[in-house]
Amino acid sequence: MGRYLIRRLLISVITLLFISFIIYAVLFMAPGDPLGELAANPNVSPEVRQRIRASYGLDDPLYIQYFKWAKAYFIQFDWGTSFVSRMPVMDYILPRVWTSLQIGGTAFIIGVMIAIPVGVVSAIKQYSLFDNLATTFAFIGFSVPTFFSGLILILIFSVKLGWLPFIYNSNPPSWQDAVKQSIMPITVLALFTSGQLIRYVRASMLETINQDYVRTARAKGLKESAVVIAHAMRNAMIPVITIIALQIPGLVGGAVITEQVFLIPGAGSALINAIKAKDIPVVMAITFGVAILVVVFNVLADIIYAVLDPRIKLK
Amino acid sequence: MAAPSATPQTLATAGDALRNSRKQRSLWGDAWRQFRRHKPAMVGLTILTTFILFCYVGIFFWDMPVNSPYVYQTNVPIWGYSEGFSVVTMKDEKTFHPLGTDEMGQDMMARLMFAGRISLSVGIMAALISIAVGTAIGAAAGFYGGFIDSALMRITDMFLSLPTLPLLLLITFLFGPTIKKWSDRTFGNQNIGTFLLIVGVISMLAWMPTTRLVRASFMSVKEKEFVEAAKSIGARERSLIFKQILPNVLSPIIVAATLQVGASIITESSLSFLGLGFPFDVPTWGQMLYTAKDLMQADPKLALLPGSMIFFTVLGINFIGDGLRDALDPRKTN
User: Fold this and answer.
1) Cα–Cα dist A249/A295, whole Å
2) Which of helix, strand or coil describes residue B75?
3) Does B151 contact chain A (CB < 8 Å)?
4) Which candidate from A26, A257, A298 shows the least CB-CB separation from B174?
5) ∠ at Cα A8 (A7, A11), nearest 5°?
6) Do A211 and A270 contact (CB within 8 A), yes or no?
7) Which of A192, A307, A203, A202 is nearest to A251 (CA)?
8) A167-192: string of b/e by CB count within 10 Å (b at 16+)?
9) Chain A partners of B275 at a C-beta cutoff of 8 Å?
10) How far apart are CA A147 and CA B266, in angstroms?
């Protein structure tokens, strides 16, 4: 296990370096001068411009620029300053990440809490009315694009009924307002999460429920609840937990769109604004942050699997 | 002596009748029979067929311009959709625009059809490319194994860890203008470039799951006796890959391809919804939503129509994928 972990972490570091290089290369190859206005300003003489370019290292080849950047980024933790807000990138991003995390995290937890019982019951009562309803719900949940479900909620609850506010206020006057304005974005994301998860839970549960050890448990006269919860569910949840871990980074994609629908000042909308304003340090930081999330949760999923299932030996 | 009751002729006709009554069952016929029993899949197929007919055939019956606003002034349009001035009174508007007009006075039905053609083509093209790439890489890795396998799988793993959505947004935004200029020079049309860029980026970031799937299937089928048998009679590598193994791993690929069409449509709509997809004069369903989202109070149908088109298309595709999964899995046949 120890050796596996070390190797796995090493691969993760290499993967992250590869990803950072890809992102850097995309930005490097993008058309347009990074000096922007300065390059087009006729008052700046060509020599001065040349000197500025050299001082930024803009004339170096891609890999040299990348190494310089990577050194600052990973060794000195200098993530730069946002071009637009003139704030250090970290100060700019962290409060926004926190906003996204509150909404995305709550939605995810609610989604999981809906998906597990619904999936389990739907597997136990396979082909029943409940199962059919749950499966349909799951299909709708992961087929409806978050931007559409969001707009429909706005249409019903803000435009027609006027119960919930249209626009997210980052400094809500009271906690009731804070709760009220979070209901719709959380519902949208929770619907999406649970839609995807229900199918996994159901499939995994169906697989275990026909196993011999479940029949044995039933044969020795255990109560049905004990059979389902202690014997079947416990084993069915192992792959589900792995999938949950793998889905967490996917929340970012949902967040980008939901935040745009409800105008939430989170990390997702910060990314869109930064891309449109060519605020490269912010784009880089958020994109790379997502990459870290993906890699970390991939490793975590493998470890959780090995811990929960003693038959799996990590080598 | 009684005549023999069964002459060769009667026997032959009886045999024919028997053969006709028990029609030959092919693999695809079986799959279709199985598929038809899957109710949601049939619903999905109906929805999708209707939408495809609406978008691709509807144009022959409804060829209104997509980008020419129809302006009304005191019951008389001051500017017609075709050359010259056509006089249409307000009373006719309902028959003239069955689904109404958008905020610019452009015919919604024509726009929905046009947008659907773009959205569906992007979805289908991106799915085809990503599945083709994924299958090629997965087949190579699974068939050859060894160094080729581990190298290809490392690359696949790296791509799987890429932050998909941010990169998608970044690339379409940064490279959009350049591609447009290039496309204008080469094809005389900016939008071909945007189309290629979006299809390219979506498929570039979506081939990895197929690779894993195909690789795993190839590795298990490769060890089967019939492949061994083909090898022993001297089948060449190409025939092993394309004639022996590939047909046997086709079912999961078909299912993945179907689901990928839906996923690509959602991705394209998301890009357009964020204002980073097609330009304004090229409506797609997502792009129509992008403009409609600020007009939710004034005219909700502007959002509801394209939004439901996306939703039902994707739902239909997912149902079809589910049905195909059951239909193409011989173990599930009952």
Assistant:
1) 9
2) coil
3) no
4) A26
5) 90
6) no
7) A192
8) ebeeeeeeeeeeebbbebbbbbbbbb
9) 276
10) 10
User: How far apart are alpha carbons B62 and A58 in whole angstroms?
Assistant: 54
Tokens linked to B260: 């990928």
DSSP state of A86: -
Nearest of B142, B129, B128 to residue B212 by alpha carbon? B142
**Is there a contact between A176 and A94 (Cβ–Cβ < 8 Å)?**
no
Q: Quick one: tokens of A241?
A: 């937990």
Which residue in this structure is represented by tokens 């190298």? B151
Residue environment code for B202-218, b if the CB has 16+ CB neighbours within 10 A, otherwise e: bbbbbbbbbbbbbbebb
Bridge partners of residue B71, in order along the sequence:
B79
Alpha-helix residue ranges (DSSP H) falling in A154-277:
175-209, 212-219, 224-226, 234-247, 251-262, 267-276
3-state secondary structure (DSSP) of residue B238: helix
| Type and span of the H or E element at B71 | strand B71-73
Cα angle value B54/B60/B64 (rounded, 5°): 90
If we measure between CA atoms, which residue out of B139, B113, B132, B126 comes closest to residue B56? Answer: B113
* 3-class state of residue A174 by DSSP: coil
Tell me the shortest Cα–Cα distance from B83 to chain A, in angstroms: 37
Q: Is B289 on the interface with A (CB under 8 A)?
A: yes
Mutate to test the interface with A, among B119, B155, B165 (most CBs of A within 10 A): B165
* CB-based contact, B155 to chain A, within 8 Å: no
Both structure tokens of A211: 């196993």
Out of A15, A142, A287, closest to residue B167 by CB: A287
pLDDT tens-digit profile of B223-258?
Answer: 889 989 998 998 888 888 888 888 888 888 988 999
Instruction: Give residue-wise pLDDT tens across range A118-156.
Output: 999 999 888 889 999 999 899 898 889 888 998 888 888
H/E stretch holding B78: strand B76-79
Let me know: does A165 contact A204? Beta carbons within 8 Å.
no
Smallest CA–CA distance, residue A178 to chain B, in Å, is 23
Q: Closest partner residue to A144 among B157, B166, B311, by Cβ?
A: B311
What is the full DSSP assignment across A202-217?
Answer: HHHHHHHHTSHHHHHH
Of residues B193, B149, B146, the one with CA closest to residue B172: B193
If 0-12 CB within 10 Å is exposed, 13-18 middle and 19+ buried, where does residue A6 land?
exposed
Pairing of strands B76-79, B71-73: antiparallel
Q: Where are the alpha helices (DSSP H) in chain B?
A: 8-21, 27-37, 39-52, 58-61, 93-96, 108-144, 146-160, 164-187, 190-204, 208-222, 225-232, 237-239, 250-273, 285-292, 301-327
C-alpha closest to that of B313 among B64, B50, B85? B50
Q: Give the residues across from B101 on adjacent strands.
A: B107
Structure tokens at B15: 């045999």
Report if pTM > 0.80: yes
Of B74-78, B142-146, B265-269, B294-298, minimum mean pLDDT range: B74-78
Residue B138 CA to residue B211 CA, distance in Å, equals: 4
Q: Pick from B166, B300, B318: which is nearest to A139 by CB? A: B318
pLDDT tier, B129 (very low <50, low <70, confident <90, very high otherwise): very high
Q: Which two tokens stand for residue B109?
A: 């039905």
Residue A273 structure tokens? 């604004």
Q: How far apart are the first and last CA of chain A?
A: 7
Asked whether the beta carbons of A257 and B273 are under 8 A apart, the reply is yes
Complex-level ipTM: 0.83
- Token pair listed for A141: 């949940």
